[in-house]
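Input for the complex:
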Amino acid sequence: MDLLMTQDEVRFRDEVRAFLDAHLDEDLKRAERLNPSFLAEPAIGLQWQAKLSEKGWVAPSWPKQYGGTGWTLAERYIFDQECERAGEPHFRGASIKMIAPVLMRYGTEEQKNFYLPRILNGEDLWAQGYSEPGSGSDLASLKTKAMLDGDHYVVNGSKIWSTLAHHATRMFALVRTDDTGKKQEGITFILIDLKSPGVTIRPIRSICGTHEFNQVFFDDVRVPVSDRIGEEGEGWDIAKYLLEFERGGAFAGGVLRAMLTRLYRLASEPLPDGRRMIDDPLFVARFSEVATDVDANDMLELAAMSKVQAGGNPGSVPSSTMKIERSRIRQSIAELAASILGPDALRWEERRPLHELPEESEISEERKVASAVYFNSRSQSIFGGSNEIQLEIIAKTLLR
Amino acid sequence: MDLNYSDEQILLKESADRFLKDRYDFEKRARILTSDDGCDAAIWAEMAELGWLALPFSEENGGLGGGAVEVSLIMEAIGRSLVVEPYLVSVILAGGLVERLGTPEQKTDILGGLIAGTSRPTLAHREKQTGFDLGNISASAVRTSEGYRLSGEKPLVPGGAAADVFLVSAKLGESLRLFLVPADAAGLTRKTDRLVDGSRASDLVLDNVSVPASALLDGGDTLSEIEAAYDRANAALASEAVGIMDALMDATIAYTKERVQFGKPLAAFQALQHRMAEMAVKCQEARASALLATLSVDAPRSLRIRGVSGARAKIGKVSRSVAQEAIQLHGAMGFSEEMPIGAWFRRLYAIENTFGTTADHLKRYGEIIRDPAVLSGSLLREPV
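Predicted:
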């Protein structure tokens, strides 16, 4: 048992570092620093995706046969750590991390051959169509209806909290094709072209001031049966498979450590009154506590990774623990950063995206975005299965 | 990187759990607590037979060559069964220092007796003003024609009651040194108290205690070896705390499943389910944190402090919360000394105040984490 990299992994890390030094430009890093959301502005994300595409590094988690890297889990971990340390724009959202694994597992050859390359080259951006106004944590109660009409489904209803749907070309959605039996059994997984007639997108501005979420309405939207994934009624199983990817399939240690490092830099600069927060014992105590949380989360991730490498499964209690802790740590760091703004916390910049504003010093810009980052961080404990749902999962495992 | 236990390590853990389950139940422990020195001779002899007392020492010194991971597994089992015998202070702390600083004769003598179960050395280092500045020692040593004469006070020496020999630190001129002092040395008085967790500690007073020249442990940098030894002990304490937290979790789950109020088991109430799930989250985090401590004891100093003091700080906080919740969820039953809940609670409280408090460790961690390489660096390390 040890925490050592192999010589090959060290070489790999150095190669990734050298690539990031050479290709991740200052303007992309600045745009990411000024982005309060968990996903980059699509324009910024696509620029970075294009650069990675030349190197073949867009989709670290995909197998080689689909245009992925074919990396080991340890290499993916190291890549993630290095990208986060360098401050890359977070562009790997619903397309690369959610619909792609579903297509690989459940899609037909035609579906895979058509959709996967379009994700890699940035032609398609996908939005998620899970939650509905009346169905959040109780997802299986969803009501958006798809009625079979010849070789098409006719879709009516509404999806909500669809991240970046206003930029997306397509949406994967859970729809109800049957409401006679158990509610989970009448759900089907379909792919919707968002340019289809009958699709309306309403923006939802978040409390952080950014437009990232949307409500999407479907009014007699026709979807070819060939865009169904799996069989009719198989949607719930596919949804659960996808949520596993959303929950445990990604590393968060890199981004948490990067946020912590940024917070330390911010706290090292003199405030307008001349004080430095890193000289303040109360701040140092709070900072140190969060840092121990980040270390523990890193160890949880590495332990889960070791289990998977050995052919096992991390287990539901560790997975849900990580989901809960990641959200709390991110929220604590964001809250701590916002807490040191002083009266400047009251200033509010309406303009989005923030990186289009004239450039200021890095620290001034960190201070400018800190309130919005804090507000945005509250979503961390809600999406992808709220923390209350994670506690339910843990309680069921322990007490059944 | 591999964080999976080997088959041998899993066997060690199972055998440790089985031994203590069979031979060290809560009633047995209660009887041991009433003894004079808080140490059961038969249990200690069985620990010797099982190889626990030889575990961390190198094979050339008669040990089994076990590493920090093996020690952590024993410590988890010790935590769960609330073992009061001075395993940690005799084997990990004192034994470890003799192995690193002792002459071949001292190793043969002290480690030989320790491994055989006939000797229980302990470390008498900290003084009332020492705090976290481990070099802040007032006890003094002066050279004599035969050896050294030692004077000073060593309060709250853990394992003092059962010890036959002390490793006493003292200033020899400006430099810190360790000396072997037999418990029956002339001029040494030992006053033993029962501590908050039932274990024994002694207040030692050394009044011109004469020891021979061969009593000096002089094989290295004493102060940095003492610091490293406390870090190994603190990593071991972190694992002990994890064993206790798991035991509290298991007991709470079992109790709330069994206890019926308002016509259903307590475990059926969602308000309580979520509190137990939060306990489980803390147990998971503590386990991860203790593992980092365990895998850091042989790392360079800054990484060692990060791992060990980080774990003590983190585990201090979350273990306190888990213990408080366990008492609360047991209702009045958790308040009784008849159940182990309170004993686990008190042992965790003792751990929080042993070899540095939770706050001390947070401070020590906070100083090291300011190093940008430590703060922003991955936990993965380059091969040596």
